[in-house]
Amino acid sequence: MNGTATSKLRQRAEYTHRYNTRLGRHGWLRLTPAYSLRIVEELMADCGPNLRVLDPFCGAGTTALAAANRGHEAGTVDINPFLVWFARAKTAMYGSRKIMEAETAGEAVLQKALQRRIDPVEEPPMHRIERWWSSSDRMYLRYLKAAIEDVSQNDQVRDLLNVAFCRLVIRLSAAAFNHQSMSFRDAAQSELDLSVDEGELFRQELRFVTEGAAYNPEGNVSVVLGDSRRIEDCFGEPFDLVVTSPPYANRMSYIRELRPYMYWLDYLQNGREAGELDWQAIGGTWGVATSRLGKWRRAADVRLPDQLLEVVGQIAGSGRSNGSILAAYVEKYGEDVAKHVASVGRVLRPGARAHYIVGNSVFYGVLVPIEKVYAALMRRAGFEKVEVRPIRKRNSKKELVEFCVSGTWSASGATSRIAPQRQEASAARASGGEPQPSALPAAVSIVFGTP
Ligand SMILES: C[S@@+](CC[C@H](N)C(=O)[O-])C[C@H]1O[C@@H](n2cnc3c(N)ncnc32)[C@H](O)[C@@H]1O
To answer: Could you tell me the distance, in angstroms and rounded to a whole number, from the CA of residue 255 to the centre of ligand 1?
Structure first.
């Protein structure tokens, strides 16, 4: 990318999760990691019909839902079980009976919760929970959760109620701007306004959720709990298109971001679990993950691009107290991405186009040119026509930019992990005709805090 191209870039809000908040199901929960539906739509605009679209880093399921709304079949993976639950709920097909059942169940939940006709659940064991919710709001949420569990089975009705519950969890919180990654207001100030019917807030959230649920996607979606470093373990049929946004090497922890939901919905029991999950995730380094980085060494069989090794050396040699740990963070990020990129070809049909939305980062003044790293890894793995396109400035720091790195899968000579007849069926779907004989595809934040 040249200097002129970057200097003309703007911080385009329409390319961030903010664009999604009013778009039906896309707005169900606001997750900062989510990227914009608009980017996904643009990348899919010129593609043919009936594709199999892969997002190896599902997050809130933006790609999968957008693809299914266009009639494609979608497959997506995330390592975070909460996000897998959420993406499944967000991309499911809901019949009108189920939606009505959810609305009726919502009223029953409110009656039980408001009249205290049930034992409340235990308070989630979240660190400094009193900063998040006032004691009366915590109590209300505990009754509400108990009532949801009592009134619904473990099914679609409960999913819709729980999405509404998550929306209320964040709406009642003292997190500034009603967002989990922000700072806190005084929890006492965020107590429910007693002039507002307590139940009305939950009703509003549920209405928003059921309105979105009424618009069903056309294509099927498969959301897999798995690890994109071994994506061949997750799917049995090859894909025609990849649209994804992997974690960035920017010290952001998705577990930390999502902890209010994860604690309330029992996906987390304590800080140790949070740190463990973050250590499993690419780019995560919260709690225990930070101390593990100190001992981490790159696997002998993973080769990283020179551009990355160079910046790792510069960060390590910066003379700053956390230089070596940040260098390990960036190097491990590189290793994880290298594993993913080496694995993704095993689930692609030859000719499949892959788009990675990635953001660069700066540590101690050293720019990590992650777009070049992705491009180098993709070429090495067997992608052709690899291109890097700047998309937008990330914030007011002029060097922080988001890029789209694209390539076409065309490696030859090695073996796929997917059965040949499945490949042909998929190629046929992509070309809109009968199965054609096809060449087999080749196999080719450090957040220093307390969870
Ligand atoms: C930038 S977010 C994706 C956001 C998504 N595009 C959206 O719109 O919601 C990256 C996601 O990758 C997931 N992730 C991290 N490491 C992973 C791994 N090894 N395998 C699968 N998913 C992983 C994180 O949990 C996070 O949800």
So the answer is: 11
